[in-house]
Design brief:
Bound molecules: adenosine-5'-diphosphate
CATH superfamily of the largest domain: ATP-grasp fold, B domain
Number of helices: 17
Distance between the termini: 72 Å
Strand order of the largest sheet: 14-13-10-11-12-15-22-20
Oligomer: single chain
Helix content: 25-40%
Radius of gyration: 28 Å
Length: about 675
C-alpha cells in the first residue's frame, strides 16, 4: 500500500480523506494557502506544505507547486477531493510526468465526461436513457427558437461546459428562449470560457437521483445504489438522502445497470457518480457523470457500510474490489444537510467571519459530522462557505429525520450566520416527511424566500419555562455566593415574569411559578416544574450553568435548547426558531414597564448595504425620481455583483457613499425623501 498521500484540497474533504488514511496507516501531506495557515486539515495531517496566497488561483489551483510538494515530501499519490483540480486534465498529466499516482479516474474518462454534449452522446451510444433534445451546438437565437419548437416547450437551455447550475435556464416560450439563450451563453462564456449551448426537454416536477459507481482495474464495475438530491436551491444541493424514497427495486436496478454500462463504456476506474433526473412516472434520464468523489458521498457510506475513500485508494494502488454486486446492501436510511455560513433571512447571502463558538453535535452511530473548521477558525471570503456536512442514520427515513432534527438543535454556531434555521424548517415540512420531493421543492415551499413564518408555529410555553429554569439556576448561584454568611443569603423568589421579545418589537409577558423543590446550579441536575399560565411544564436536565446546550426531558419528551446568556436576559434557540427573553421578578418587571421605549427607526427611507462589500456604481443622482424596480446601485461582494433595486417609487434625497467606497453591512448608501 502507499506509504504517503498528499491531499490537494482543503476544508472538510481534506479532513475526511486524512481520516481514512490514518485508519489505513498511510502518512498524509496537507497543502495550504495563506488563509489556511491554521486550518484544521493542516493540523490533522502529518506534514503540511505552504503553496501560496489565499485566492485559490494562487494556491490550490497551482499545479506545479502541488507536484513540487509531492516530490519534496515523497508523497506517492494525490487525492484531489472535489472541486479545485479534481477534474483537471493538465493536473493529471503533470502528476503522470512526475510518476505520482492520481487517486481518481484516468484523464480520458474525465475529459469525455467533462463536456455535457460529448457525455450525452456517449451515454446515448452506451444505451443509457438521455433527456430528449438536440445534441448539437446551437449557433444563435434563431436556431435556438427553431430547435426549442421541435423539442417542445418547456425546454432547458444548457451550456455544454456548464457546472454548478451556471449557464442553465428554463424557457417556457419563444420569448423566454430569446431572453434566456443570450444570458446563459454569456454566463457560460464568462464562467467557463466556452459558450457552446444545447437544448433539451425540461422535465417537469423532476427528481434528482444519482447512482454511485466504483470500478477497479480488473474489470469490476459496481453500483452502490442511489442518492436522492432533489432538495436544491438554485440547482445547488442542500439536503441529500439514501436511499431515495421514490425508487422501487426495479428502477434502482435499471438505473444502476445503466450507470455501470456508461462507466464501462469510458473504461472508468475509481469512484464516480452518474446523475439522472427522474420524472413523476419514474422514467429516468442521464444528466451527467461526475468523475470524482461527491460532496454527498457520506450518505452512501452510511447505508452500505463502505468507506469510499478507502476503496478509491485501494483501487488506485491496483487492488481488486473486495466484494461483488450482490454484496452491496442497503441498510437503513441516511440524510445529509449541508451547513453553510450564509444568512437564510437575507436571501442566503454568504457570511464570513470567525467561529466565535462552535460546538458540533456529538458523533454516534446515528450522527456523523464532516467538518473542516473548529472553534476560533475562520470562514473566509476566499472559499466555499460550507461549515460542515451533518449526516444522520436511522433504521428508516422517519428515524433518520428525527436524528437529523435533534442534531440540528444541538449544533451550536456563533460568530457567523448559518442556515440551520432553514434546514430545520425544510426537515419539519409535511411535504418532506411525506417524501414528496422535486427539485422545485424549495421554490414552491418558500415562494417569498425564507422567514420566521416558515418555522413550525411555536407554542412559547416550553421555551418560557426553560428561560425561567435557567434564570432560576443563575439566581440560586448568586444567592449561594452572597449567602456564604449564614442568614445573610438572598432568597430566590419562586415566581418570575418572563418577557418574550418578538422580532417585530412586540412583547409578550408570561408569569411563571417554579416548584419549590427545584434543584440546580453548578454541576448539578436541574429538575423543575414550572407553571406557565395554566400549563405545567416539567423539565429534567443535567444542564450546568453556562453550558450552551440544555439537553432535557420536557414533560417526558427529549428536547435540546440552545441557551445563550446575554447582557440582559437570554437567547434561546430550538427547532430553527430563536427567542429573546428577559426574566424578571414581579418588582423588576413593574419597573421595566416604566422604562421609555425607543421606537424602531423607520428604515424604509434608506438604502442600506445588505452585505459587506464594495460599492461598484451608483445608478441615480440626488433629486432623481425612481420607479419601483429601478436599479439604484451595484455592490460587489464574495466575487458577485449584486444589483440593488428600488422597492417602491420615490425620490433620492441624499447620496451618502461614492462609487469605490467599501461598505459595511447595513451601511447607508442613500436616503429617500
Ligand atoms: P450542473 O452541471 O450545472 O450541476 P446539471 O446538468 O447536473 O448541471 O443539472 C443541475 C440540476 O438542474 C439538476 O439536478 C436538475 O435539478 C436540473 N436540471 C438539469 N437538466 C434538467 C432538465 N432537462 N429538466 C429539468 N431539470 C433539469
Amino acid at each position: 500500500m502507499f506509504k504517503k498521500i498528499l491531499i490537494a484540497n482543503r476544508g472538510e474533504i481534506a479532513c475526511r480523506v486524512i481520516k481514512t488514511c490514518r485508519k489505513m496507516g498511510i502518512k498524509t501531506v496537507a497543502v495550504y494557502s495563506d488563509a489556511d495557515r491554521n486550518a484544521m486539515h493542516v493540523e490533522m495531517a502529518d506534514e503540511a506544505v505552504h503553496i501560496g496566497e489565499s485566492p485559490s488561483a494562487k494556491s490550490y489551483l497551482q499545479i506545479e507547486r502541488i507536484v513540487k510538494a509531492c516530490k519534496q515530501t515523497g508523497a506517492e499519490a494525490v487525492h484531489p477531493g472535489y472541486g479545485f483540480l479534481s477534474e483537471n486534465k493538465a493536473f493529471q498529466e503533470a502528476l503522470a510526468k512526475a510518476k505520482i499516482i492520481f487517486i481518481g479516474p484516468d484523464a480520458h474518462a474525465i475529459e469525455a465526461m467533462g463536456d455535457k454534449i460529448t457525455s450525452k452522446k456517449l451515454a446515448a451510444k452506451a444505451g443509457v436513457s438521455t433527456v430528449p433534445g438536440y445534441m448539437g451546438i446551437i449557433a444563435d437565437v434563431s436556431e435556438a427558437k427553431k430547435i426549442a419548437k421541435q423539442v417542445g416547450y418547456p425546454v432547458m437551455l444548457k451550456a455544454s461546459a456548464g457546472g454548478g447550475g451556471k449557464g442553465m435556464r428554463i424557457a417556457r416560450s419563444e420569448s423566454e428562449v430569446e431572453e434566456g439563450f443570450l444570458r446563459s451563453q454569456s454566463e457560460a462564456k464568462s464562467s467557463f470560457g466556452d459558450d457552446r449551448m444545447f437544448i433539451e426537454k425540461y422535465i417537469e416536477e423532476p427528481r434528482h437521483i444519482e447512482i454511485q459507481v466504483i470500478a477497479d482495474r480488473h474489470d469490476n464495475t459496481l453500483y452502490l445504489n442511489e442518492r436522492e438530491c432533489s432538495i436544491q436551491r438554485r440547482h445547488q444541493k442542500v439536503i441529500e438522502e439514501a436511499p431515495s424514497p421514490f425508487l422501487d427495486a426495479k428502477t434502482r436496478k435499471a438505473m444502476g445497470e445503466q450507470a455501470v454500462q456508461l462507466a464501462k463504456a469510458v473504461k472508468y476506474v475509481s469512484a464516480g457518480t452518474v446523475e439522472f433526473i427522474v420524472d413523476t412516472k419514474r422514467n429516468f434520464y442521464f444528466l451527467e457523470m461526475n468523475t470524482r468523489l461527491q460532496v454527498e458521498h457520506p450518505v452512501t457510506e452510511l447505508i452500505t457500510g463502505l468507506d469510499l475513500v478507502e476503496l478509491m485508494i485501494r483501487v488506485a494502488y491496483g487492488e481488486k474490489l473486495p466484494f461483488k454486486q450482490k454484496d452491496v446492501k442497503i441498510n437503513g436510511w441516511a440524510l445529509e444537510s449541508r451547513v453553510y455560513a450564509e444568512d437564510p433571512y437575507r436571501n442566503f447571502l454568504p457570511s464570513t467571519g470567525r467561529l466565535v463558538r462552535y460546538v458540533p453535535p456529538a458523533e454516534s452511530k446515528n450522527v456523523r459530522v464532516d467538518t473542516g473548521v473548529q472553534e476560533g477558525g475562520e470562514i473566509s471570503v476566499f472559499y466555499d462557505p460550507m461549515i460542515a456536512k451533518l449526516c444522520s442514520w436511522g433504521k428508516d427515513r422517519k428515524e433518520a429525520t428525527a436524528h437529523m432534527r435533534a442534531a440540528l438543535d444541538s449544533y451550536y454556531i456563533r460568530g457567523v450566520s448559518h442556515n440551520i434555521p432553514f434546514l430545520a424548517s425544510v426537515l419539519g415540512k409535511k411535504r418532506f416527511e411525506d417524501g414528496n420531493l422535486s427539485t422545485n421543492f424549495i421554490a414552491e415551499e418558500y415562494p417569498e424566500g425564507f422567514s420566521d413564518k416558515d418555522l413550525p408555529a411555536k407554542d412559547p410555553t416550553t421555551l418560557v419555562a426553560v428561560a425561567a429554569v435557567v434564570h432560576n439556576a443563575y439566581q440560586q448561584r448568586a444567592a449561594g455566593i452572597s449567602g456564604q454568611i449564614p442568614g445573610h443569603g438572598r432568597k430566590v423568589p419562586p415566581e418570575w415574569i418572563v418577557v418574550a421579545y418578538g422580532a417585530d418589537g412586540k412583547e409578550e409577558e408570561f408569569s411563571v411559578t417554579m416548584s419549590p423543590e427545584m434543584i440546580g446550579g453548578e454541576g448539578g441536575a436541574v429538575t423543575a416544574t414550572a407553571r406557565v399560565g395554566k400549563k405545567t411544564v416539567t423539565i429534567e436536565s443535567n444542564w450546568t450553568l453556562g453550558a450552551a446546550l440544555l439537553v432535557a426531558k420536557v414533560n417526558g419528551k427529549a428536547m435540546t435548547v440552545q441557551v445563550e446568556k446575554r447582557p440582559v436576559g437570554y437567547r434561546l434557540a430550538h427547532a430553527g426558531a430563536q427567542m429573546d427573553v428577559g426574566v424578571y421578578t414581579a418588582r423588576q418587571a413593574e419597573l421595566a414597564r416604566l422604562m421609555p421605549h425607543k421606537p424602531a427607526p423607520d428604515m424604509s427611507k434608506y438604502l442600506l448595504s445588505p452585505m459587506p462589500g464594495l460599492l461598484v456604481s451608483l445608478a441615480v443622482k440626488e433629486g432623481q425620481a425612481v420607479k419601483s424596480g429601478e436599479t439604484l446601485a451595484v455592490v460587489e461582494a464574495m466575487k458577485m455583483e449584486n444589483v440593488l433595486k428600488a422597492e417602491r417609487d420615490g425620490t433620492v434625497k441624499k447620496i451618502r457613499q461614492n462609487a469605490g467606497d467599501s461598505l459595511a453591512v447595513d451601511q447607508m448608501i442613500l436616503e429617500f425623501a
